[in-house]
TrEMBL record:
Its EC number is 2.7.4.6. It is found in: Cytoplasm. Residues 3-140 form the Nucleoside diphosphate kinase-like domain. This is Nucleoside diphosphate kinase. Major role in the synthesis of nucleoside triphosphates other than ATP. The ATP gamma phosphate is transferred to the NDP beta phosphate via a ping-pong mechanism, using a phosphorylated active-site intermediate. It comes from Pararobbsia alpina. The active site is at H117 (pros-phosphohistidine intermediate). The keyword Phosphoprotein applies. SUPFAM superfamilies: Nucleoside diphosphate kinase, NDK. It comes from the Bacteria.
Length: 141
């Protein structure tokens, strides 16, 4: 496995539930390091650009409306196999299908309000990280 970086977003539903610490703790517990993090609220333009790959999907407007509905916590996680490790910790997109003990099984209410985002491949991780953090603001260690 290679040392990787991945982008995590704790979505507005999970921030509103006050479970940011519990979610970040799962990343750390799995051996991932938080090498950048911030609380921010996305503009409509930013959310549309970030999820641009889904622009043609029927759920796009709901997805964007949801992502801008409140503050989010955006982090860069670093570690061996960080991309797949984070996806494993997250669980399936639809929390009803997410494995027991995953973040989405434990904290998400629906396929729209599903608590977390995680990059799905090395290429998307690089683009998503650069979208939120300049290299100088990432503290690898
Ligand atoms: P994310 O990209 O947020 O980490 P994901 O990679 O598990 O989630 P994607 O297929 O990339 O899932 O979908 C992006 C987001 O769009 C999902 O998190 C979910 O909120 C929403 N979404 C995906 N599929 C559907 C659907 N069939 N109906 C409603 N919303 C959906
Ligand atoms: Mg995705």
């Amino acid at each position: 496995m290679a040392l990787e970086r991945t982008l995590s977003i704790i979505k507005p539903d999970a921030v509103a539930k006050n479970v940011v610490g519990q979610i970040l703790s799962r990343f750390e517990g799995a051996g991932l390091k938080i090498v950048a993090t911030k609380l921010t609220q996305l503009s409509r333009g930013e959310a549309e650009k970030f999820y641009g790959v889904h622009a043609a999907r029927p759920f796009f407007k709901d997805l964007v409306d949801f992502m801008i509905s409140g503050p989010v916590v955006v982090s860069v996680l670093e570690g061996e196999g960080a991309i797949a490790k984070n996806r494993d910790l997250m669980g399936a997109t639809d929390p009803k299908k997410a494995e027991k003990g995953t973040i989405r099984a434990d904290f998400a209410d629906s396929i729209d309000a599903n608590a977390v985002h995680g990059s799905d491949a090395a290429e998307t991780a690089a683009v998503e990280i650069a979208f939120f953090f300049p290299e100088a603001h990432i503290y690898s260690r």
